[in-house]
Design goal:
- The protein has 864 residues and is an all-alpha fold.
- Helix content is 65%, strand content 1%.
- It folds into three domains: 302 residues, no CATH class; 250 residues, no CATH class; 198 residues, no CATH class.
- It is built from 39 helices and two strands.
- A two-stranded antiparallel sheet has the order 1-2.
- A hairpin with a 5-residue loop joins strand 1 and strand 2.
- The protein is globular and about 100 Å long.
């Protein structure tokens, strides 16, 4: 800034400017000149320099005023967030050491153990995310990958991007998808700004970009710039006078972007913005530095230097934006500052309260761990997972993806036992399980597309569409081929659709229940835990309740022709402003009430069809970090165990919080009894699929296996049982999970076989062949799916095993008869079954056989 200008500004302000302040003003005017020039470069170039300076100065002044107002808004929102958290922690914390820190963790993530009247940040984020996804169904339809996600829909992707850039493709689906995307992003931007963000209405904000730091870094700056420069919209690169920047200046600006991309430690730069501020409220406010001249240029760059497909770019952008908005709405514009201050203050208070007490030495380390847990939980909820070595993490993730695809071919059968969680969750919510089950069946039915569509458009049960599955402790498998393979197996097995149907069935009943109770009770405070279940303990405000009451219910059509009312996000969005003006800002009220409704519903749906949440994931990390050998080995060992761990951490914790012994029993009984019964049904299905007659259900072995596969162990129980009892796996390896069992199998194929051969074991070659065939069979995804198993076994695998190891089929039959006590209706060596399964072998109605088995059991434990 020139001296005369500085003097004029100082005179207007009535005080002196520091050099830093003068530079800030000068930079602001220069920025505004460039932004104004973009609006109409020709008209701007014709203006005299004085006029350009005047307009830029006015724009800069307005920007500074807006910035001051934004800071005032952020300060107010921060105070409100701090006050909400303070009141919640004080209302929940008891007198035990660590109670305050544990209560504070509930601000971040849903906790079934003493959750209190507060909707956590994680639940809030999930609700925003799913509601946004539901509004983008047209976008997903236009660009959804083909063949269960294995291949990108290139035609749909190109047309969608072109429509986003304003190019008419004649593709109606792409046009609708682009409009849905633009509208959803505008809504998220407006919501974020109301929560303290500062994102202007610039078209470029709608186009998230992906950069692979490895690809960009490998190319080097000269090649990268050479490839990028022809793709740019040079009308966006202007000098203060409106003239276009010369190549050298553009390259200088882009060099800064190159440095930002190639030095990103997590290798996941998702936009080409210049480095900005630390708080989530400021993300999105930075000015982009890479502008593409058209859709083809954008696609060309993403093909050459992008890290993700368009599908992954769009979904990642929604998740990241939902995190920023959700955290800002729950914890204020700077959630790190608010939560960090709370966590530190409560930690010090608890430490000081323990000084001088005899158990300080014992309690002190627990307080340290509680504080560290809260810090890690915040990072997880905020999407900040440190990765020490991305290459190592990627390789282990690929292994886990492959194991998921290879080891869970019959996952849908194992998942039958999940229904026990649906019954217990229905009990906790005071809704009839019969209604839940019927609606679940309705949404599962292939002819009930309308019922399924109703829930998908209300943000429930979108996993089948999105391919974001967190059953095994992670949000998504990743964009690599192993991730696509794992997602494909979940799709084609039918398990993903079944889990979504459960969520949709339970969610629809909960929404109907809310429609009922909002008509019966004037205020949310009128509800109580005994009569209205866990809803009475959720973080629902009286304003939310008034909005729910004002909503005209959406109707659910039963197969019988009946109509059931539901309060849904769509019904809340349809409330006219006139019905809400008396309570406050109608748009803000609708937004808050809709998110809180969906947060509650998704929390409970994630209990019925178990989801692994941030709290459970952080606990299972045990303080390790991704990208380290310790962290990756632990995570691989925990594969399939996360479901069982989540069951214990969520369901058993809720059982302990149920009021009264009767309620505790009513909640636990379905988990154990119903879970075992359904697992028993699954075991019989496995027998029939394998060509065996049903097992004797009066045998203690049968119910032992059912309890192992049910009762909360789920997928790990299934894996453990198969590996330990059927695949000659050692107990240590079976306990260690798929990483350990795979290692043991590879040892048998290499080191063990070599030792036997050197010792002169003549059977070693046959053993090696048999082990190799078994290893291949167990680790081939798709071919081992539950509905292909019988055909593949009898047409291929049994014949190959018999040829490699004569007598194999006879030994297999003998082992099954000894361990399971079953006969064969489909002989392993036959291509077709010789008869139908003999259901009488189950002895369900054979009273005498049941008495005999009971007598054997009694004799075995010396009971007279």
């Amino acid at each position: 800034m020139k001296g005369t200008c500085i003097q004029a500004v100082q005179a207007a302000l009535g005080r002196a400017l520091t050099p830093a302040q003068a530079k800030t003003i000068d930079d602001g005017i220069s920025l505004q000149m460039r932004l104004l020039a973009r609006q109409d470069p020709d008209a701007w170039a014709k203006l005299p320099q004085a006029d350009r300076l005047t307009q830029a100065a006015e724009a800069a002044a307005n920007s500074m005023v807006a910035e001051v107002k934004k800071e005032q808004q952020r300060l107010l929102l921060t105070v409100q967030a701090y006050d909400r958290a303070e009141q919640f922690v004080n209302s929940l914390a008891g007198g035990k050491p660590g109670d305050k820190l544990r209560a504070l963790s509930n601000v971040l993530d849903f906790n079934t153990k003493g959750g209190g009247n507060f909707t956590s940040a994680a639940s809030w984020i999930k609700a925003i995310q799913e509601e946004t996804f539901s509004k983008l169904i047209d976008t997903w339809t236009a660009s959804h990958p083909k063949f269960f996600g294995l291949f990108e829909n290139r035609e749909g992707t190109r047309d969608l991007v072109r429509e986003m850039f304003g190019e008419n493709t004649g593709n109606a689906a792409a046009k609708a998808g682009a409009k849905a995307w633009m509208d959803a992003m505008d809504e998220l931007r407006d919501r974020g700004n109301a929560a303290g963000k500062d994102v202007g209405k610039l078209n470029e904000w709608h186009f998230p970009q992906s950069h692979s730091s490895n690809r960009v870094g490998s190319a080097g700056i000269e090649k990268w710039l050479g490839d990028l420069m022809p793709l740019l919209d040079r009308s966006k690169y202007l000098n203060e006078d409106g003239s276009r920047m010369v190549d050298a200046k553009v390259r200088d600006i882009l060099s800064q972007a190159f440095d930002s991309i190639t030095t990103d430690g997590q290798n996941k730069v998702e936009s080409s913005r210049m480095a900005g501020y630390g708080m989530p409220a400021n993300r999105g406010a930075e000015h982009r530095v890479i502008f593409y001249k058209d859709a083809d240029s954008y696609l060309a760059y993403q093909s050459a230097y992008g890290e993700k497909s368009l599908w992954n770019i769009l979904t990642s952008h929604v998740r990241a934006t939902a995190r920023d908005v959700g955290l800002s709405e729950v914890l204020g514009p700077n959630p790190d500052q608010v939560f960090g201050a709370f966590n530190q203050r409560l930690f010090l208070e608890e430490k000081r309260a323990m000084r001088g007490k005899p158990d300080f030495e014992k309690v002190g380390p627990k307080l340290d761990k509680a504080k560290a847990f809260n810090d890690k939980l915040l990072d997880y909820v905020a999407g900040r997972q440190a990765v020490v070595d991305t290459d190592l993490a990627g390789k282990f993730q690929a292994f886990r993806n492959f194991m998921t695809a290879a080891k869970l071919p019959k996952v849908i059968i194992t998942a039958l036992g999940d229904e026990a969680g649906m019954m217990s969750t229905s009990f906790a919510n005071k809704v009839p399980y019969g209604d839940v089950f019927m609606r679940e069946m309705q949404t599962l039915s292939p002819v009930s597309g309308q019922a399924r569509a109703v829930m998908e458009h209300n943000g429930v049960g979108l996993n089948s569409m999105m391919g974001a599955l967190n059953r095994f402790g992670q949000e998504e498998y990743g964009a690599g081929w192993t991730g696509k393979l794992a997602n494909t197996v979940m799709h084609v097995s039918g398990a993903e659709r079944m889990w979504d149907a459960r969520r949709q069935g339970l969610a629809s009943v909960l929404m109907s229940y809310i429609a009922k109770v909002t008509r019966e009770h004037e205020n949310f405070a009128d509800l109580n835990r005994a009569d209205h279940g866990v809803l009475a303990n959720k973080g629902i405000s009286e304003e939310d309740w008034k909005v729910w009451k004002a909503a005209e219910p959406e109707m659910w059509s039963d197969p019988t022709g009946g109509q059931r009312p539901m309060i849904t996000p769509k019904s809340i969005a349809a409330i006219p402003d006139s019905a809400l003006k008396a309570f406050g800002d109608p748009a803000a009220l609708r937004r808050h009430a809709s998110t809180n409704l969906l947060a509650h519903v998704l929390e409970e749906a994630g209990m019925g069809a178990m989801d692994t949440g941030p709290r459970q994931r952080v606990a299972m990390q045990m303080g390790t970090t991704k990208g380290t050998w310790g962290g990756e080995l632990l995570q691989s060992a925990m594969l399939f165990k996360s479901f069982a761990a989540s069951m214990m951490m969520k369901h058993w914790a809720r059982a302990g919080e149920m009021p009264g012994a009767g309620s505790k029993f009513g909640y636990v009984a379905p988990l154990i009894v119903y879970g075992a019964v359904l697992a028993a049904l699954g075991n019989q299905v496995r027998n029939v699929l394998a060509g065996r007659d049903p097992e004797n259900m009066a045998s203690p072995k049968f119910w032992g296996a059912a309890l192992l596969r049910g009762g909360g162990l789920g997928f790990y129980g299934d894996f453990f049982y198969d590996e330990f009892t059927e695949n000659d796996t050692s107990l240590a390896a079976a306990v260690g999970g798929p990483l350990a069992t795979t290692g043991e199998d590879l040892w048998k194929l290499s080191g063990a076989s070599l030792i036997h051969h050197l010792q002169g074991d003549k059977q070693s070659d046959k053993m090696w062949k048999g082990n190799a065939i078994r290893f291949g069979k167990q680790n081939l995804p798709i071919l081992n799916l539950w509905y292909l198993q019988s055909a593949m076994d009898h047409i291929l695998w049994n014949q190959v095993q018999e040829a490699a190891s004569p007598g194999y089929l006879e030994r297999m039959q003998a082992r099954a008869e000894v361990t399971k006590g079953t006969s064969w209706y489909w002989q392993p060596g036959d291509h077709l079954p010789e008869r139908a399964p003999d259901v009488s072998t189950a002895h369900i109605f054979n009273v005498d056989r049941g008495r005999q088995e009971a007598s054997k059991i009694a004799d075995s434990i010396n009971v007279e």
